[in-house]
Design goal:
single chain; about 525 residues; FAD/NAD(P)-binding domain; protoporphyrinogen ix oxidase, domain 3; Polyamine Oxidase, Chain A, domain 2; seven-stranded mixed β-sheet; five-stranded mixed β-sheet; 19 helices; about 25% strand
Length: about 525
């Protein structure tokens, strides 16, 4: 075993994981302090689940990552790394929930046709595919929506929603109750139950309501009803709906070559400033003494070689279950019991290359490619949960602009049937399912690939109800910071994960050992605004 102690007396921070949280922590440390970061990454890729995978010149965004945050600090951080494209540089704000968010840009910006390090400004469009038809996402009670639902189902939805308003379930304990309170039982059954259970693999009444509080806290049908009533009294020519308040972003930023490009750029800047990023090693033992972590041992995933690092500070973005398992001395029995019961949902993406889709948007010039970034597949007769059209995230993700590059997403458990299907069978399944629901003709598939990502979604069931026991135990280590999605077993978005890293570095610089402000990220609607950039 080899022991590396850095360059004494320089303080060392050991960071496990090179995803958004880990790399943000390293960058913040190396640019704002005298602390030397060493990042340990199990794979060879930067970005964690925010990486970009290349296949024969086509790029896959694992899960789809919109670069948008209500936090100015995060927005400005992104644009400082990758400037906004030229034709968008004159636009100084983005729309979010009816408000405008300033963009920190200056100058004319790079031209993406000739520059690679550039952030694109993209339009957002997501829809739900249900009853072999497209519905707006989030659901809006427009005449088109009601027509597609049919009078009987639409009437039931209205009555059900009214009942939920008048007779809400008090103290909603599970996700089904949360959905029913928010949308009514009929709308829940039509548009939420099937997709949500595809994602998690268990009934909604077995999932904590906390998932809904975190993921769809701003989504409400009330604004849709008000919008529908306003539309009913407007002239038919008023179709632009420019004054409509949306409940999701209207536009977002996106790196030219996908999210992985951002994190490869950040990793490059960390190394240029003297930071270290060591790939191909996983954490196997974290030694503690009293209220501090003393050192961590990591093992090469190929050779088995072990290295031990001492440090002043330790950041963990690895799954909580793995962190607790590698503690030395072991965690108390109750903490290990909760950790062992934590569950995760895993993820498979099938990339399909085609000449065209069977479903199209109608335009003045004729048929054209659907403009959606994401399509949520609500159909219960297929396993596929979501569809990405990579052309619409960035045209530079697609090698041949005359082709359509799709990502068919499956939610599964590691080592279940979907996870274990051979690549050829997985490709056949994806093509056959999209063919069955009328999205593609499977005979037109030109090429395909399969990607698997374990522990993509920390689950809000299993032993999660007792997670506080883990938090109480790990928070006692004054120099250990749990950050990011898996690091905190919390369904954080990319910006949430980055904010936990930023706040952790703020705490170190300010001598704060209390971890409360880390756990508060992504718990309130205005969580971002409590975390301003340092002066």
């Amino acid at each position: 075993m080899q022991k590396l102690v850095g360059n004494p007396p320089q303080r060392i921070a050991i960071i496990v994981g090179a995803g958004p949280a880990g790399l943000t922590a390293a960058f913040e440390l190396i640019t704002r302090s005298e602390i030397h970061p060493i990042v340990i990454e199990k794979s060879s890729a930067m970005g964690g689940i925010s990486r970009t995978h290349q296949y024969k010149g086509n790029r896959i965004d694992l899960g789809g990552h919109r670069f948008f945050s209500k936090s100015d600090r995060v927005m400005n951080w992104w644009l400082d790394r990758m400037p906004l494209q030229a034709h968008a540089a004159g636009q100084h704000s983005l729309g979010y929930q009816g408000n405008r968010r300033p963009l920190a840009t200056s100058g004319e910006g790079p031209n993406p046709e000739v520059e690679d390090r550039v952030m694109l400004l993209r339009r957002r469009k997501s829809r739900i595919y249900f009853l072999r038809q497209f519905f707006e996402y989030p659901i809006r009670l427009t005449a088109d929506t009601l027509r597609k639902l049919g009078p009987v189902r639409a009437f039931k939805i209205g009555i059900s929603y009214t009942w939920s308003i008048l007779h809400p379930i008090r103290h909603a304990a599970n996700l089904e109750q949360f959905f029913i309170n928010r949308f009514g039982r009929e709308l829940y059954l039509a548009f939420f139950k099937s997709y949500t259970e595809k994602v998690w693999g268990i009934p909604c009444d077995q999932i904590s309501a906390e998932w809904g509080e975190q993921r769809i806290k701003g989504l409400s049908i009330a604004k849709s009803i008000v919008h529908f009533l306003k539309q009913a009294v407007r002239k038919r020519t008023d179709i632009s709906q420019k004054a409509t308040e949306t409940s999701l972003i209207e536009q977002f930023l996106y790196p030219k070559y996908g999210p992985g490009q951002m994190w490869e750029e950040v990793a490059c800047q960390i190394r240029q400033r003297g930071g270290e990023i060591i790939t191909g090693f996983e954490a196997v033992r974290m030694q503690t003494s009293g209220d501090r972590v003393r050192q961590i041992t990591v093992r090469n995933v190929n050779s088995g070689e072990e290295l031990t690092f001492e440090g002043e500070y330790f950041f963990s973005t690895m799954p909580v279950k793995e962190l607790i398992a590698c503690l030395d001395p072991p965690a108390p029995a109750n903490v290990r019991e909760v950790s062992d019961g934590l569950l995760y949902r895993d993820f498979v993406t099938v990339g399909l290359l085609l000449k065209q889709l069977k479903v199209v948007d109608r335009a003045a010039g004729g048929r054209r490619l659907l403009r959606d970034n994401w399509i949520y597949i609500q159909e219960p007769d297929v396993h596929a949960g979501r569809l990405q059209i990579f052309n619409n995230w960035s045209p530079y993700l697609v090698k041949d602009p005359e082709t359509v590059w799709l990502g068919v997403e499956y939610f599964c458990n590691e080592n279940d049937r979907i996870w274990n299907l051979p690549d050829t069978a997985m490709i056949d399944l994806a093509a056959a399912e999209l063919d069955r629901i009328g999205v593609i003709d499977k005979a037109e598939v030109l090429d395909a690939t399969v990607l698997r990502m374990p522990k993509t979604y920390p689950a809000y069931f299993g032993s999660y109800a007792r997670f506080g026991e883990i938090r109480t135990f790990v928070d006692r280590f004054t120099n250990l910071m749990l950050i990011g999605r898996n690091g905190m077993h919390k369904y954080n978005n990319q910006d949430h994960s980055m904010l936990t890293a930023m706040i952790a570095v703020d705490n170190i610089i300010n001598g704060i050992t209390d971890k409360s402000n880390l756990w508060e990220v992504n718990t309130e609607m205005e969580y971002h605004e409590s975390s301003k950039a340092p002066h």
